[in-house]
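Deliverable D5.2: sample structural annotation.
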Amino acid sequence: MPLTFRKSFRIFPGVRLNINRRSWSVTVGPRNGPKRTWSSTGRTTTSMDLPGPLGYRSTRTRRRGGR
């Protein structure tokens, strides 16, 4: 089993800094509501937990090279 590293810090209420072995990200939003995450790899994720087995997630990745 490979070793993994992941750590999350609460900076302010509703704002978290997430760190793993390859990148870092900032998540903004309440615990049980819509959230927006920006990653150092260029990925932006919008997500929302819904009651039951439902959930919503939309991910966009910016292209490298500026085009």
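Annotation notes: Residues 20 and 52 are 29 Å apart (CA to CA). The mean pLDDT is 85.
The annotation will be released with the project's public dataset once the embargo ends.
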